[in-house]
Amino acid sequence: MKRTLISAFVLTAAIAASPGAQTIATAGPSYESRASLEAEARSAESANRTSEALLLRSRLKTGDFQEGDRIVVVLESNPTATDTMQVRAGKVLVFPRMSEVSLEGVLRSELNDTLRRHLSKYLTNPEARATPLLALSVMGNVRNPGFIYAPADYLLRDLIMRAGGPAPDADVSKTEVRRAGQTIWNVKETRSALTNGLSLDRLHLRAGDEVYVPPERHRFQLSTILGVVSTVAALSVAVISIQSH
């Protein structure tokens, strides 16, 4: 029978008592550190990029995690012992037979250390790797619009491809990113992010943010014009038919 993650943790704890045992791994995806975000915020403020500065300050204050987020936890010593945990109300994670661990104010780059400190209260040198997943919506003219869970180190362009890629009438160059109905990365900034291969973490995205891919404007206008012409033509034929009788 497949062991649960907590059972594997307990077994690992017994083995890890020997000298040289490793702790939660720090290798893996690269997420923005608190120091780098502080530097970016100061740069944005000095350049009067107000919206970007607010985005950064909000991230530094409240952290990266939202209720409902998912985090994949993998044991380094036993990769088959994995679990996908959900951030619960109050921004907490709950490990069986342990106290809650708060993720309030925690950045993705700080997640492994936060979990290590928590698990070390109960286990000896726990070995694990945590991968945060974001629930983002990709809407507009993509083939499969909707919510997608993606790792935070995912590239923005890859997220769009996970939604089936752009529809034939999509204008990817006009893509923008929204939060609660407000644009946080405009068309120009999003185009740069797609071109430069920026990740979701680098764009400071969090659960619930929306990537919107609009239709090509000239195609929309053409279809509208053709529809109007067709309607006028049909009415003209009807009027002529009535007059001929």
Question: How are the secondary structure elements laid out?
Answer:
Blueprint: H1 5-15, H2 34-46, H3 50-62, E1 70-75, E2 78-86, E3 92-93, E4 101-102, H4 111-119, E5 128-140, E6 146-151, H5 156-162, E7 176-179, E8 182-185, H6 187-196, E9 210-213, H7 217-244
Parallel strand pairs: 5-9
Antiparallel strand pairs: 1-2, 1-5, 3-4, 5-6, 7-8, 7-9
Structure commentary:
- This protein has 245 residues and is α+β, with helices and mostly antiparallel strands.
- The protein has 3 domains: 5-132, no CATH class; 135-217, Outer membrane lipoprotein wza fold like (Roll), CATH 3.10.560; 218-245.
- Helix content is 37%, strand content 20%.
- It has 7 helices and 9 strands; from the N terminus they run αααββββαββαββαβα.
- It has helices at 5-15, 34-46, 50-62, 111-119, 156-162, 187-196, 217-244; strands at 70-75, 78-86, 92-93, 101-102, 128-140, 146-151, 176-179, 182-185, 210-213.
- Strands 1, 2, 5, 6, 7, 8 and 9 form a 7-stranded mixed beta sheet that branches. The protein has a two-stranded antiparallel sheet with strand order 3-4.
- Helix 2 (34-46) packs antiparallel against helix 3 (50-62).
- It is globular, with a radius of gyration of 25 Å.
